[in-house]
């Protein structure tokens, strides 16, 4: 494996790879970060691990990193809070800025923006302890999906097929989040679109189809089994794949995302219409992860992908 030209590698300066953290996705973040760290080192970059879940912001400042690669997932890493701290510390970082990270982590706010932009996304309802679950089920129909809107990696998500199971699903999500979202269940194939860049330069990588056992793409099937199958490029008519990429990039831009990300899409079985599910502003970089898979389909190695993302590290706030 070739390293970068020593001068190019040196130009990155001292690089921190931030992983671990305090969210429910810590285990996955550790795997992502270990992969990114090894990749950057293999290219001759002066990269060092840093776990914000175990070390303080004062220690982060003391490390005097010239830039950082964020390989954190979920709260306190993907939700804008860390991005704000890095802006205050003046440390350039990969991925989206404070606002886009915060909005992207909130599935409810994401839907509001997408719907305002005329983008297709499944119907939903916001629930609390006083909500009429029966009325929600009647409105959205069964089955439906219940999820905590600020978690990732399918944590706390339940498919409700019968009204009797709605309350238990609500309780599972409510234990993880202050608000709960019920979402219309769209029957069809599951896809994801990885995106690199930002603004006018944002570009979609080849579409990946996800075929999980019995359609259950849960935490275990995402990261720890080989039972889930992936097809990249997905077996789709060219026009449909292009449309899926187009709306994914539009959805990414609508939230102000940059650097890199991934937009999850469902293709409705009845009419082959794509629906946007959510955006990931700090996607997984594990051996099972989908952004590296899509990059490989375009001839970009894992190591080169990590370098390309690192190149985009910057402070987003001017002042």
UniProtKB/TrEMBL annotation:
The keyword ATP-binding applies. The keyword Ligase applies. Binds 2 magnesium or manganese ions per subunit. Residues 111-311 form the ATP-grasp domain. Mg(2+) 2 binds at residues 278, 280. It catalyses: 2 D-alanine + ATP = D-alanyl-D-alanine + ADP + phosphate + H(+). This is D-alanine--D-alanine ligase. Belongs to the D-alanine--D-alanine ligase family. GO terms for cellular component: cytosol. GO terms for molecular function: ATP binding; D-alanine-D-alanine ligase activity; metal ion binding. The gene is ddl. Pfam families: Dala_Dala_lig_C, Dala_Dala_lig_N. Mg(2+) 1 binds at residues 264, 278. The active site is at 25, 153, 289.
